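Human:
If only I could read backbone structure tokens as easily as an amino acid sequence. I am handing you a single protein, as its sequence and its fold in token form. I hope you can help me see how the letters and the tokens relate. Thank you; the sequence and its tokens follow:
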Amino acid sequence: MRLFHWLLVTSIALAFLSSEEDSVLSAWHEPAGWVAAVLIGFRLIWGVVGGEHARFANLIRPSRMKTHVTGLFAGRVHASLGHNPLGGIAVLGLLALTAGTVFTGITGGEDVHEVIAWTLLAMIALHVVAVVAMTLLTRDNLIGAMITGRKKTTHFPHAQDAAPPARLAVPLAMLAVAGSGFAATRIDPNAFAPGTRAEAGESSESGDAEAREKEHEEDED
């Protein structure tokens, strides 16, 4: 699960850094987006069959939301196993914004794509700030947990290890990755080939220039 987390972080960061056409990383923009799409495909499956704290059912906890938010405003902040109710909603929001960014990038809705992408960046920044703030308020090392995927049981001496993924979780996740990757290459044969479009563009421009030059020579004749 940590591998998914950091691969997604890397793909999003690379997509932002390569978003300008004059960037030295511009050739990686679309491949980074396709990698993010494959990771979203994996996460949708893992959210159903993955470990206890990765499942969507444990991220959406409306029955605890009111108590959690009321406690925050009252200054009563407590550590929690897994994601707290707002943290769970934040994870779902980040996944949805990532999926929206990828979708609008594929379909060509450039203006909407940029709006959703910048909203995603703002949400990531807010998420990091919230993790740091909750770490300080609860004295629970959420930063370390976000990096390693493991949390000390200092605040929960009687806690047990989280329930593991379902027996078929790994095969299903691998199938999701393979299927998503295959679908990506069906939509875009050069999905994971950085630089291919640039080379094709240069070749096309070269061919157009030669055609114009030949036409000009014929006109002179």
Summary: The chain has nine helices and no strands.
